[in-house]
Amino acid sequence: MELTSDDAIAAFGLLIAEAAKGLVDAHDESLDKRAAMMRVESPVFQRDNDELLFEFKVKGNRQKPVVASVLIVPERGEDGEDFDYTPMDVSLKATPSCQCNDFTRDAACSHTLAVAWWLQEQLTRRSITEVFEFFEELEVDTIAVGREVCDKVLKLADEANKVETGETTQLQWRVGLSDSRYYAPLSIVAYEQKPRKNGKGWTKGKEIRSYDLLKRDFHGNQVDGEIAGLIASPSYSFDGDHFTEYRALQLLAGHPNVAWDDRESTAVAVLSGELTLNLEPVEIDVESEDGSETVTRFRPVIGVSGIKIDPAECEVLLGYSSPVSPVVVLADMKFNRLVVCTLRNPRATRLIQYLVKADLNETLFDAETAAKLSVGAARVDSLVRVDLPQQLAGPIEPVEAELVFELRPRVGAGLHIALVMHDDRFRSELVPGKSPDIIACLTDDGPVRLQRNLANEKVKADAVVDRFQFTQLSADGDYRWVAETDESALDLLARLHQGGEETPRMIWPEGESIRIRGEITPGALRVHIDDRKDWFGLTGTLTLEGTDVKLADLLAAVRDKRALVQVGDREFAKISDAFRKRLEQLGDAVVLDRGALKVAEAAVPAVQELLGEDVGLEATARWHESIERLESLSNWTPEKPEALDATLRDYQLDGYRWLARLSTWGVGGILADDMGLGKTVQTLGVLLDRADKGPALVIAPTSVGENWIRETERFAPELNAKLYRDSDRDKLIQSAEPGDLIIVSYQLVQRDVKRFASREWGTLVLDEAQFIKNSQTKTSQAIRKIEADWRIGLSGTPLENHLGELWSLLRTLSPGLLGSWERFRTRFADPIERHKDDERRQSLARLVRPFILRRTKDKVLSELPPRTEIQLQAQLSKPERKLYEDARLAAVAELSGVVDNEKQGEQRMRTLAWLTRLRQLACHPRLVDGAWSKSSAKLDLMMNLVDELREGDHRALVFSQFVKHLGVVREALDARGVEYQYLDGSTPAKERQRRVDAFQNGEGDLFLISLKAGGTGLNLTAADYVIHLDPWWNPAVEDQATDRAHRIGQERPVTVYRLVAQATIEEQILEMHADKRELVAGVLDGTDRAAKMDTADLIQLIREGVTS
Description:
Layout: H1 6-11, H2 13-25, H3 32-36, E1 39-48, E2 51-59, E3 66-74, E4 92-98, H4 110-124, H5 128-138, H6 142-161, E5 170-177, E6 186-193, E7 206-207, H7 210-213, H8 222-231, H9 243-251, E8 258-260, E9 263-267, E10 269-272, E11 275-288, E12 291-304, E13 307-308, E14 315-322, E15 325-332, E16 337-342, H10 348-360, H11 367-380, E17 385-387, H12 390-393, E18 396-398, E19 402-409, E20 415-422, E21 438-443, E22 446-451, H13 454-468, E23 474-475, E24 480-483, H14 486-497, E25 505-507, E26 515-520, E27 525-531, E28 535-544, E29 547-550, H15 551-559, E30 564-568, E31 571-575, H16 577-589, E32 591-593, E33 596-600, H17 604-611, E34 616-618, H18 621-634, H19 650-665, E35 669-671, H20 679-689, E36 696-699, H21 702-715, E37 720-723, H22 729-735, E38 740-744, H23 746-751, H24 753-756, E39 760-761, E40 763-767, H25 778-784, E41 787-788, E42 791-794, H26 803-813, H27 821-833, H28 838-848, E43 852-853, H29 857-860, E44 867-874, H30 878-895, H31 904-923, H32 937-951, E45 956-960, H33 963-976, E46 980-983, H34 989-1000, ...
Parallel strand pairs: 5-8, 10-16, 11-17, 18-22, 19-25, 26-31, 27-34, 35-42, 35-43, 36-38, 36-40, 37-38, 39-41, 40-42, 44-49, 45-47, 45-48, 46-47, 48-49
Antiparallel strand pairs: 1-2, 2-3, 3-4, 5-6, 6-7, 8-9, 11-12, 12-13, 14-15, 15-16, 19-20, 20-24, 21-22, 23-24, 27-28, 28-29, 28-33, 30-31, 32-33
Helix pairs in contact: 2-4, 8-9, 15-16, 16-17, 19-20, 21-34, 27-28, 30-31, 31-39
Domain Helicase ATP-binding: 660-816
GO molecular function: ATP binding; helicase activity; hydrolase activity; zinc ion binding
Pfam families: Helicase_C, SNF2-rel_dom
C-alpha cells in the first residue's frame, strides 16, 4: 500500500492527525495564548513520492500573514528501508517550518502550533470518506498552477514589451561577426527603433548613419554617447584600425539592448570575464614492450570566467582595444552571448592562438610538459588564471611575498603607482589580497604551489594606503593610482622617502631611481616669432630653477614620448599633462628644418592656439595681421553667390562655405567628397567669388574636360570656360583675364608646363587630384612650378595607396603644412602604417582636418537608392584550365631562384608581364592566343547575364581594363544584335560626350567602357547595373567606375556584378582588396597593391596562383 495513492492518504488521516498531535504535545505552553489568537487560512496540500506537505497562511490580529507548513513523512525501519505501509504498522513524522523570526528547528513557534491544532481538529472529526474529499479539496493541481504562472509571465512580458506613452524611439546596437577577409571581423552599428502601431514591441529599425549618430542627443546616457563617439567619426577625419570596435564592445558589457546584426529580435548578452587555462587529465592506453598500459595525459582547455571555449563550437576573436591592449572575444552563437576578456600583454594573443590550435588538434601533454605549459602561460600574462589538476599541482608551500611600490613615470606628467606583491618566483607582480591564492611554479625539485596569505596581504596593503594618503590620488585599479600632476608626484615621493624602514621598497624602471626637480609649465616659456619669405621662424626658451631648456628640446622629448626632460645629472623635470598635449600638437604643426623651427601660413592658427595666452610671445606685425584675419573669418558665414544658378543641398552649401573661408584665408585644401556629390558645383561657387582675382586654371583628366564646360555654362554662365586645345595655345594663356576659366588635361599641362608657368593664375583647381599622388612624377613636378594665388584639389580618393600620396597632394596644395617627406615619414607615415600607432593617426587627422573636407554618400544622401554587390564565379573549361596552368608553371620556372640585385628592375618587369598574362588568360584565352576560336567561361557567363538584364528591361555599364577584352565582348554582342555604346582611351573628347548623351537618352542596352579611360568624370545614371569583367588591383578605381551610375540623379537601386574566374589570380586580387579596404577604414581609401609589393611578393603571388 503506497502512501501516495488517494485511498491510502484517506486511510492515514488519523495517523496524520496523530503526528500533528505530536507537535502539539511537544510545544512550549507559553505559546498557547498567542497560538489561540492565530487564524489559519488558505490551506493547500501537495504530495511528492512518500512526502505530504501542508502549507498555510497564518495571521494574528495585527500581523501580516506568514507562511507556515508541516511536512509529513513515514518513519523508516532500522535498516533504513521503508515499512510495508498499512495503517497497522506505520507511524508518521511531522516536521514544522515557518517564515517567522521566532521559529527554529529546535523550537516551534505560535504559527506552527496553530497549524498543528488545525490539522488535528480537521482530521479527527472526519470519516475516511470525508478525509478523502477533504484532501481532494486541498490538493494543488500543479499543472493548472503551472499554466497560471505561465499566463502571468506572458502577461508580464506583454507589459514589459509595451511601449510607455511618450517614448518615440529607442537605440539598439547590433553586432556583426565576419570571417571574410573582405570585411572587418567585428562591426557595431546603431539602429533607431520605433514603437509598433499596436503598442507591442519595437520595429525592426533603421540604421543610423555616422553623420547623424554624432549629432544625436543621448539624453544623458554616457555609455551610448561614448560608443557612438568610437564607431562614428567625423566625415572629414581618418578612422583607425579596429581598435574602436573592440573598445566599443567592452563598453557594451551589460547593455540592455544589443542584438545580432542579422537577428535584431535576438537579444545578445555582452559580458566581461577572466581568461582561464585548464589542464584536464585524460586516461589513454599506450603500447610498450611489456604490453598495454594506461597513462595520464593532459589536454589544454581555455575558457572565460568558467565558460569553456570550444573552438569547434564557438568563434574566438583576437583583437586590440588599443595598440597595446589585447582583447579576446568569445562569440557564443548558441547561447547568444559575447564574452570579452581584456589582457595585459600583447603576447597573450599568440598564447591564445597556440592553445586554440592545440585544442582543435586534440593535443595531449605529458605531466612534465603540461606543468611547464601552465607556468609559462601564467608568465605570459598575469591576467591568465591557470587551474591545475591534482596530478600537476605539486606540494603546497606558504610564501610571504614582499609588498613593494612600482613607480613608473607617466607619459605626459606625474607617476603611475602600483602597490604589488613581489617574489622572484612569481615572475609577475600580483595584487595584494586578490586571487590567485595559489601560484604554480617550477623549481629544480619539480612543480610547487606557493600559498599566499591573502587576508594578511590585504591588511598590510590597506595600512600602507591609509598611512600615505593614497585616497588623494586618482584610482587606476586595485591598489593602483595615478599622480596626474608633477606637484602630486613630488608630494608622494617626498612622503615615501620620509616614511622610514617600514615603507615598502620602491622599484623604478631598470632599477634607476630619479629625482623630479619641478614642473615645466607654459608660463616659464618665452617664444619669439620672426618673418621669413614664405613662412615664419619660431624660437623659444624655458627657464626652470635657473636652468634654460630650449623649446626644440621640449618638442623632441614629447616626440620621443619621454616622460621626463633632463635638467641635470640624474635630475629631471616633468611636463604637465596639459602642456604636454599642447607641445605634442605644436610639434605636429611646426617643421624642424636644419635646426630652425618653421611655421607655414596654414599652421598659423594652430600654433597661435597652442601657444596660448600663458606663454610669453614676441611676434611680428605680419603674424598678428594673419591672426586678425583668421579671427574675422571664424565669424563669417559666406552666402551663396547670386551668380551661381544652382540650388545647393545643405552639405553642398557647407562645402562652398568651407572653400570660401580657405580662399579668403589664402591656404589650399582638398574637397574629398565621394564621387557624385557635386564637387564641381561647389567649386564653381568659389570660382565666381574669385573671378576678380585673375584667370582660373582647371587641370582635369581628359574625360571630364567637356563636363567642366557644360557645368560652367549651366551653373556659372558669368564665367568664360575654355578648353586648352591645339590651336592658339600661347594666345589662350597670355590673353586669359579675370573671369576666364582655362581647362587643360594633366598630360598637356606636363608637356606645356613652360607656357602655364610663364604667368600667375588667380586660382588653380586640380580635379581628380589623385593624379599627382606620386610627388616624383613629371606631372607632379610640373604642376608645382605653376604660380597661383590660391590652390584647391578635388578628389573622391585623395589616399589610394599610402600616406605618401596625401603628403604629395598637400605639398602641392598647401606647401609647408606637412614639412619634408623625411619628417612626415618619421613622424606620421612609419608609425601609422608600420606600427599601427593610433595616437599618431589621430594627430595627423587633427593636423589636416581644417584642410580636408570629406563627405560620403551613405552619410549625406539618405535618398540615394541602395547598391548591391554580387560576385559571380566563372568555372574555367578543361582547355582553359590547361592553358592557364601551363602559363603559371612556366612563369614559376622562369622567375624562381635568387633575385639578382643588379637586375631587379628587369625581373620585376618580367614578373608583372607574367601577372598580366595570367590575368588575361583568366578573362579569355584569345587575349593571349590569337588562334583561340572557342568561347570562354567568363564570356559565356557575361552573355547569359546580358540576356537576363535585357529581359528585365535593365541597362548596364560594362568595365574592363583590357581593351582587347572589350573587343571580344563587342564581337559577341554584334553576333546577337545587342545595341551598345563603346568608349576607350582612343575615343575623341567630343565623340565621348556624344556617346554619353546617346546612352543617357536611351540608345543602347550596354555601355562598354575602358576602366582607365572612363572610370571617372562620367554621369551615366541611365544604367542601373554595373558589370566589372575583371578585377583591378585597386578597389577604389572600381568603386569610382561604379559611381558613374550610383550617384545623384540615380532613382533606381544599383546592382554591381564582379565576374571572377575561379581558382585563378583573380581570386587572389580580390583577397588583397580586403587589406586595401582595411586601409580605407584606417585612413581614407584603397591601395594599389601591385605597385607596392616587391618582386619576391609578386613571384609568390604567381606561385600560389591556383587554389584547386
